Amino acid sequence: xxxxxxxxxxxxxxxxxxxxxxxxxxxxxxxxxxxxxxxxxxxxxxxxxxxxxxxxxxxxxxxxxxxxxxxxxxxxxxxxxxxxxxxx
Length: 88
Hints:
Layout: H1 2-5, H2 17-32, H3 36-54, H4 59-66, H5 70-80
């Protein structure tokens, strides 16, 4: 189960700390009518950008941290309009 591997535990287990913030975020997105697909795409885009920044724009290193092939990262960068060496 994915929740077992999360560093902050099961996000539905309690309303404290990060779990509470995630629950509030999900509740807000749900109320706003934001789809799961839209949410996943935005989270993936932001995660890729942050990872590229933490890797100083090194796509090979970022792809490894993200657990994907560099070609997949390049395709996702194009899909999300992420340009430049540092995910901008």
